[in-house]
Amino acid sequence: MKYAPYSSSRLDSATCGYLFYHTYVEPRVDRKKIRSLPQDRGSAVHEILEYMAKAYKKDINHPFFTVPAESRYTKPKPTEEMQKAIQDAVNLYPASYQQIDVLESCAATFARRRLDIIDEETGVELMLAVKREGDTFVQCDFDDKEAIMRGKIDLLFFSDDAKGATIVDHKTQMNIEEADTFQMGVYAWLTSKCHPWLEEIESSLYFAQFGVHSEPVVWDKDDLARMEGEILSRIDIVESRTNWDPCPNHNCQYCDLVAECPALTNLVEVDKEKGLVMIKDDNVAILGDTNKAVYIAQMIKVLETYVNAARKTLRDHVKEFGPISIPGTLYEHRAKTELDWKKANKIRWDLKKMLVDSGVDPVEYMGFSATFSKGLALIDNDKLRKELFEKIPKKTSTTFKGYKM
Ligand code: SF4
User: What is the pTM of this model?
Assistant: First the structure.
């Protein structure tokens, strides 16, 4: 096989010929990895949950938070060990540094919602691989040169009668989905090949940001046979592929080739002499042409991914080296002080008293729910308005953007 060992993500990346070609057919040695937040955040959370699950195998009550994670009223405090595990994960996946709070909250949620069936027998971060042997597939080492399909399974539990197994995959995405995806089918199939005595395999997704599990999906022998057919036919298609054109898809957000993606260069052209980037006019007129509309939508997807990556790089540069300007626009970080409406809500009774003492009906400005209202700005009493706004707590925040000059 030309492009084995396959995995569900390798087969998935074949959706875009350009990405697959430069990753697996002719991997470029000079290729620099662009770290993206979604990708690094996902990998960092995986790393942390793996660390925790391994500790829970030995002791399901292993303390990772000083205030128990079960506490509903006090924010759990990570132990030194937990902090170190988070730091290690950030070091491995640096873009996740932007969301350390999300990493910590995923860890706290996992500690609170951990499956109490985790024990010494539980498989954690299992690296499964299979190779062909005659008409069938058998387990092999993950690094076996003959391996055809591989996968890493976050958690694997066997049922007490050893006839069934449950596999759990950790997800950091925001959208909840069912556990019947191609990826879970591949994991169930790999598990069935490595443990051929299993009669059925249940798959489930754990959404780390919410702490919820999806409804389990059961893969019986017929489902697994169908899955095998799908995997082999996808592999056949990739092995015989000759077209390596880009095909924008949901993976663009993780793609490190975005800055050179031909789908992007179809949309814009660069005048190297003048240093200008221009949208190709003839490419954006689509009225009435549905095929072209789809084509433009694909290019916009790549462009948006590129703009997000470029904006982040620009923000980091300006933070370190100071503002930059182009005609008409200044890019800089500006600190601004604004009213903190959240904290204002906490002193609403003081504010209400000020209104009442000045003969103003608080209902008109503070709402029937007694929630503090921004309508205070409308009070027709300059002195009172000034006093109220002096009383309201302030907060300072920094915004990065291009300001008009
Ligand atoms: S940005 Fe999207 S279309 Fe372009 S190479 Fe990457 S995955 Fe393919």
Answer: 0.72
Instruction: Report the pocket of ligand 1 as residue ranges, CB < 6 Å.
Output: 16, 18-19, 246-248, 251-252, 255, 257-258, 261, 263, 302, 305
Q: Is residue 252 part of a domain?
A: no
The full DSSP string for 228-274 is HHHHHHHHHHHHT---------GGGGG-TTGGG-HHHHTTEEEETTT
β-pairing, 164-171 vs 149-158, is antiparallel
Same domain for 224 and 282, yes or no, is no
Residues 291 and 221 in one domain: no
First vs last Cα of the chain: how many Å apart?
59
Number of domains in the chain: 4
Question: Over the stretch 96-116, which tens digit does the pLDDT of each residue have?
Answer: 888 898 999 999 999 988 998
Assess if residue 2 is contained within a domain: no
Residue 70 included in any domain: yes
For the segment 117-153, what is each residue's pLDDT rounded down to a tens digit? 999 999 999 999 999 999 899 999 999 999 999 999 9
Q: Which atom of ligand 1 is nearest to the CA of 258?
A: 1
Q: Are the C-beta atoms of residues 11 and 238 closer than 8 Å to each other?
A: yes
pLDDT, tens digit (0-9, with 9 covering 90-100), for 226-256:
999 999 999 999 999 999 999 888 888 778 8
Question: Counting beta carbons within 10 angstroms of the beta carbon of residue 289, is it exposed (0 to 12), middle (13 to 18) or buried (19 or more)?
Answer: exposed
Q: How far apart are CA 136 and CA 20, in angstroms?
A: 27
Domain of residue 311, residue span:
258-315
Whether 249 maps to a domain, the answer reads no
For residues 231 and 132, give the distance between their C-alpha atoms in angstroms, rounded to a whole number: 13
How many Å lie between the centroid of ligand 1 and the Cα of residue 264? 9
Q: Identify the residue whose C-alpha is closest to ligand 1 atom 7.
A: 252
